[in-house]
Every structure is written in C-alpha cells, then in structure tokens.
Amino acid sequence: MSLTGKHILSSDLFTRDDLERLFELADVLTPVARGRKVTRVLEGAVMASLFFEASTRTRLSCESAFLRLGGGVTTTTGVELLSIAKGESLADTSRVVSGYCDLVVMRHPDEAAVHEFADATHVPVVNGGNGAGEHPTQALLDMFTMHREFHRLGRDIDGARIAMVGDLRHGRTVHSLIKLLSRYDKLTLVCVSPDSLGMPAPLLELAASRGHHVEVSDRPEAGLRDADLVYATRLQTERFADLPVPYSDEFRIDRALVDRVCRPDTVIMHPLPRDSRPAANDLGTDLNTDPRLAIFRQTDAGIPIRMALFASVLGVADAVRPSLRPATWYRPDFTGPDDAPFYRNTAVEDIA
Fold first, then answer.
1. Dihedral pair phi/psi, residue 19, rounded to 5°
2. Which residues contact residue 97 at a Cβ distance below 8 angstroms, ignoring those fewer than 6 apart?
3. Taking the model in full, what pTM does it have?
4. How many whole angstroms separate alpha carbon 115 and alpha carbon 137?
5. How many CB atoms are located within 10 Å of the residue 79 CB?
6. Cα 113 to the chain's mean position, in Å?
C-alpha cells in the first residue's frame, strides 16, 4: 500500500510490507541521520510542528528528520501560544495551518483531537501522540530498533517472547506497539502490570485473534523471565493524577532484576522519558552501562525511521537513494560513551 498523502493517525494503517519498506528506507537514510550524508528530497517543503502538550524527543526528532531531508519547519508548543486559547476551533486552526505547510505533526492531550484536526485539512497529518490513545511514530521507531537489535543478535522478531511492563493502560506507546507487533508471526506477548493498569482488552483480543500467545501477569519477576525483549514504560501519572495506584518496587526494572530473570542477550527498551527518581519504580539507571540496554540506540533510530515515513508520505521515497551525497562537516563516530561499542568500527551505511 502506498503511504503517499495518507494521514498517519494510528498503527492500524501499517501492513508488515509497509514496515519492511520503511525499515529498508530508514537503513538507507541512517547515514543522513548521523550527519554522514546529505539529501535534499524535501527541499522547499514545510512541516508544521503543532504540540499542544509537552514533548522533547518526539518534537525534536520529527523536526530534525524533516530538516535532514532538506525541508523547513514551523513550530509552536503549548495551547497558550495558539489561537485556540482565544476560542478558535480545532477545525479552523487545521484549515488555516494547512495553508502554511505540506505536512503537520500534531500532539494533543485529547484522544479525538488529532482525528478532528485531520478531518479538516487536505495535507497529511501525523499523530505525535494523542492523550492515552496512540503514538504511531514511536511504535515505528520501536519496531525499527527491534529489527536492528534482533538482526545484530542473529534472531528474528517472528517467534520472539516480548514482555511489556508498566502502565499499559495509559501508555499510548504500547497501544501502538502491540498493533505493529501483531503483524508478525507466532509471538508470545507478556503484558505485565498492576491489575488496574492492564493493557486494554481490545488490544489483547486483537493480538490473540492474529495467532499470538498472550499472557497477562502482575508479577514482573515471572513475566520478564527468559524474555527476548523487555519493553518498560513509566507510570503515566499525568493521565490520572488524582487516582491512587498500587505500583510497588517490584516494578522497578533494575540491574538486579534483569540479571536474575533475563538472559545475557535480552534486549531492554523504554520509550522515554524514564523517571529516574528512586521512588518512581521505573527503568533503573544502574543499567546504563549494560549492553542489553538499547534505549539510546532506540532514540537514535527515531530520526531515520521518521525520515523514511515523511519521505514516503510526501511521495519522494524513490528519489532518496540517487539524491545522496557526502556531508562535508565534522561528526563524531558515535553518540554517547555507553553505546560506543555498537558504533565504533561500523560502516557508515550500517550505523544505527
């Protein structure tokens, strides 16, 4: 299926073939994302970056991806900076903004808002996170990271045991991720959370209907045992600030737990941000030097996969490869000392 001109509002849109084409294009674009090569396939195009809710990684990653393709970006963050604060409707804002740009990336705390916005515009809208709903571009970079990590380890995603742990009820990243995972074959999907924070039943039913074995557990020690991949999420307190939630320290994914129940080749991921305060019971910082921790390779993957998505949505995917040329500025061989072994002595085309 061609993605040209499509709104990217949900992971439901993508087939497995779509994912594989995007991964292939993202591999081609990785040297551009790493500042080794240059392409201008979106020269003259403008992206509007509309974030009605706080963001660091998604906003900067999307903007960097569009700029790396040669496009321009116009951006605003926070409802108070938009005319919506004066009473303007989302539909009016959408119609106006679509006259300024060729593509919109939008984040909004209301799950329905991105759909309302997309209904009122003729330019493609990409969902950058809609409340507790979905986050399809995060799911794409998560799957791209899994694809690369498993390839490095000589494994396939098909048949893997994948544990998702934490706030699965409010975590939009896992809602999009389980939809993409369900496009693969014969997975064991283990959803680990307190009972009150479990994965929504329709998503569990979707995965089961596609032939996957689904397990539900409230015990991380059991749920994470022998996982090929652990995907941790933080407690989404902004979604239910007034509700008490039991979230004990057994949900802290730290070095002791990982060494006790996970294999030496288990991949550990997290969509970030992680809450590093001791009482948060999130992903422990004592894993930072553990080679199993892929969270920064994961964030690095965000730019090439979003570049691939933008190029596909705007119909220039086939022009990417012939447009590449060497960059002329200085760039370090790798980003961050903890991941140096994964970047050093690696061919430019293979840098992840």
1. -60, -45
2. 48, 50, 104, 121
3. 0.91
4. 16
5. 14
6. 20
